[in-house]
Design a protein that fits this description.
The protein is of the alpha+beta class. 26% of the residues lie in helices and 22% in strands. The longest helix has 23 residues. The radius of gyration is 18 Å and the shape is globular. The C terminus is likely disordered.
């Protein structure tokens, strides 16, 4: 499907998202950004004791009080910017949380984010913003342009088939996506991406929102042999599902609507992605790729 995100459907950024899978949409106003940065720093210091040492950590996976406080702050500052930048005719916007990348954390774990919609008909994007200039030194985003066009539509959180020699093979296709402090990058959750090492002696903190096409049904995909053998289950969930202390409790609620789909092995997913690589690259070349990566 076409990724029309902006109210002005002729906006060139729609084409960039369509062909590359990522695009910059501008920066938060300076005064808003500085206040957001200050309050986010206070939040991270407040909850420093719960953060795992030496690991990339998303506060959406933190204990409930920290998760809710992070989500509220992102809602206060990022969502108004996105609403103004994108409009609301074509998309729904949801705040997520903060992401902390400490000094020295490896960043070459290429992956796709978990599926949150039925990607056969709908799309889901991340809106990502770093509080410092993000580059190759401190862990900027990297991605394979066009790889959002893959057919791995039903991805479970925390399950990553891109490992071993396959990960090293994909590394050759990755390009950096540097950004300025306060600049917002949209990228498709199905995009194969990651981030580089953080070589600077302080945390690289970012914030994130979720954007889906208007009226899209949200799902959380999960495997559980006690519920269905050789199937991946898409549980239809409301937005507040992800802010619960234990979202998985909805998986075992008989009133939660669900769809069941044939499961594919990790090896099978790797083979599909590998076979589709020429298509990703051809798709990306339909837009002037070099203009955004220099």
């Amino acid at each position: 499907m076409r990724l029309d995100v902006f109210d002005n459907q002729n906006d060139s950024r729609n084409s960039r998202l369509e062909f590359h899978g990522f695009a910059s949409i501008g920066s938060l106003p300076p005064a808003d950004f500085q206040l957001f940065k200050k309050r986010s720093g206070q939040l991270i210091r407040k909850w420093a004791g719960i953060l795992p040492k030496g690991e990339l950590f998303n506060l959406i996976n933190a204990p409930l009080p920290a998760k809710l406080e992070s989500n509220s702050l992102v809602n206060e500052y990022m969502v108004p910017f996105l609403t103004k930048a994108l409009g609301t005719a074509l998309v729904d916007i949801f705040p997520v949380s903060h992401i902390i990348k400490p000094f020295g954390v490896r960043g070459d774990i290429w992956h796709q984010d978990s599926s949150l919609v039925d990607e056969r008909r709908d799309f889901a994007l991340n809106a990502w913003m770093s509080f410092t200039d993000s580059n190759r030194i401190n862990g900027c985003l990297w991605a394979i342009p066009g790889s959002h066009m893959n057919s791995n539509h039903f991805r479970q959180f925390g399950v990553n088939p891109i490992t071993g020699s396959f990960k090293e093979e994909l590394r050759k296709l990755m390009v950096p996506i540097p950004s300025k402090a306060g600049e917002v990058i949209l990228f498709n959750r199905s995009l194969i991406h990651g981030s580089s090492f953080n070589w600077l002696p302080f945390n690289r903190i970012a914030s994130e929102c979720l954007i889906v096409n208007k009226g899209a049904i949200l799902y959380n995909y999960h495997r559980d042999k006690s519920l269905a053998m050789n199937r991946i289950i898409g549980f239809q969930v409301p937005p507040e599902h992800f802010l619960k202390e234990n979202p998985k409790e909805d998986f075992y609620n008989p009133n939660t609507p669900r769809i069941e789909l044939p499961d594919i092995s990790m090896e099978g997913i790797r083979e599909k992605i590998q076979a589709e690589i020429p298509y990703y690259l051809t798709h990306a070349k339909k837009f002037n790729l070099s203009s955004n990566l220099t």
